[in-house]
Amino acid sequence: MAECKLACFSGDEFYVCDFKGHCVVVFDVNGVFIRRIGQEGVTNFPNGIDVSDHGDVLVGDSHGNRFHVTVFTREGVHISDVECPYVKVCTYPSFILRMC
Prior knowledge:
- The chain is mainly β.
- It has one domain (7-99).
- It has one helix at 93-99; strands at residues 7-10, 13-18, 23-28, 33-37, 46-51, 57-61, 67-72, 78-84.
- Strands 1-2-3-4 form a 4-stranded antiparallel sheet, with no helix packed on it.
- It starts with 6 loop residues before the first strand and ends with a helix.
- Residues 91-100 have low confidence and may be disordered.
């Protein structure tokens, strides 16, 4: 898996964390909107994104002053949630996500 970022490419799709929209927005290589992944209450403040070699979408989220990693399928189906209770929320999501 690559380093977590606020945006990343996977195949022919571009994933962007939409902090204020409470989701991850997916575009094709031409910038055409494809879908949204997550929603308020699930990915309240996404601040890190990566796509695994298997296609799972990992979204780092800092809602409730606790850091969470929510895992989705490439199509946006929720798979699981993991809370990282020993990690403090900060402005460097790629550093945090690597620690979980």
